[in-house]
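Input (structure):
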């Protein structure tokens, strides 16, 4: 499928999706959000894809925020619709995908860009990356899940600081606070993300999908995560990957989950 604002490429079992609006520092507009959903949905349904890596084009920005020009004239009703639609269409969708999504954060990840990275399952940042939620400087708050996911990752106090001050933090500080999983030089970012993806690809896709469901359950209001874990654990016993994994263990060989 042809896209205007993103590039989707298959590299073995890895689907690379690159936000390609470098002149706008890869800012998210409605069309880009829609295209990302289409590309991610396609990757999630593709049996040849095991991991998705999401990044931005160029060396300056992963995503420098939302396209403010699109909503500068919105009223209360349109503002609520914007947030609700965006969360449902893209951000919540990524979090719930059965395929792991790695954010390769190359440069600025601000506002909707940081929210996009936080919706991914794993984040790897280049050393030049800067992250923040500057919405209060525009008279707004984060609307794509930022007030919920940031405290889950860094704790309430640090999240309050980042949101209230509208400040940015560097990659090394993001690593210390658990906002990202790893930091590397910019020129090594793609290789580092692919190395992480390769480690994931060694394991059972069905088990990883079950793990995503169980881990996400811990952060859902009114849901008993332990019960979800028990259910998903039990379901694994009915899969071909369970048979292959246990057989390989007994036979003292590496399992072949993705034949």
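Output (sequence):
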């Amino acid at each position: 499928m042809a896209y205007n604002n993103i590039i989707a490429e298959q590299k073995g079992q890895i689907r690379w999706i690159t936000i390609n609006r470098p002149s706008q520092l890869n800012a998210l507009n409605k069309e880009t959000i829609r295209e990302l959903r289409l590309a991610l949905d396609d990757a999630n349904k593709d049996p040849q894809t095991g991991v998705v890596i999401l990044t931005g084009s160029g060396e300056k920005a992963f995503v420098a925020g939302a396209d403010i020009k699109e909503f500068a004239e919105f009223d209360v009703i349109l503002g609520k619709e914007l947030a609700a639609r965006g969360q449902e269409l893209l951000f919540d969708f990524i979090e719930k995908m059965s395929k792991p999504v790695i954010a390769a954060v190359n440069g600025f990840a601000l506002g909707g860009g940081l929210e996009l990275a936080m919706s991914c399952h794993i984040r790897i940042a280049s050393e030049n990356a800067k992250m923040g939620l500057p919405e209060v400087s525009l008279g707004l708050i984060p609307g794509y899940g930022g007030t919920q996911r940031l405290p889950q990752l860094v704790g309430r106090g640090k999240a309050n600081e980042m949101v209230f001050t509208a400040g940015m933090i560097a990659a090394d500080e993001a690593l210390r606070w658990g906002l990202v999983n790893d930091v590397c030089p910019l020129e090594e970012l793609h290789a580092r993300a692919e190395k992480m993806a390769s480690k994931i690809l060694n394991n059972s896709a069905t088990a990883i999908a079950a793990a995503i469901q169980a881990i996400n359950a811990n952060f859902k209001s009114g849901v008993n995560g332990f019960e979800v874990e028990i259910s998903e654990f039990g379901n694994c016993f009915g899969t071909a990957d369970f048979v292959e994994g246990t057989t390989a263990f007994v036979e003292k060989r590496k399992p072949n989950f993705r034949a």
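Notes: Residues 6-201 form a domain with the 2-enoyl-CoA Hydratase; Chain A, domain 1 fold (CATH 3.90.226.10). Residues 76-96 form the longest helix (21 residues).
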